[in-house]
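Hi Q.,

Before the meeting this afternoon, I wanted you to have the zinc ion prediction in hand. No need to reply - just skim if you have a minute. The sequence and ligand are here:
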Amino acid sequence: MSRLTESVSDNVDRMMKALEKAEAIVCPKCGYVYDDCEDKMNLVTFWGEDGPKEEGCPSCGHEFMVEEHVSRTYTVTEKGGES
Ligand SMILES: [Zn+2]
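Predicted structure with the ligand bound:
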């Protein structure tokens, strides 16, 4: 990390801010934030089972890997009304 130039660390700052929203996909090069519906269409899977995917930024064309993380929680309650 000691070789970071100022412009790269600016990019990292911008990226980290965008990544605070964990659901965001952000280009590591230009900071383009993916649109939820259109841009993520090919990246969202049901269980996230497809692993990291190669992706090209729609804005600058930079290629990077996207790994989707899926977590599900369940709440179980008694049906009720049957006593
Ligand atoms: Zn980009």
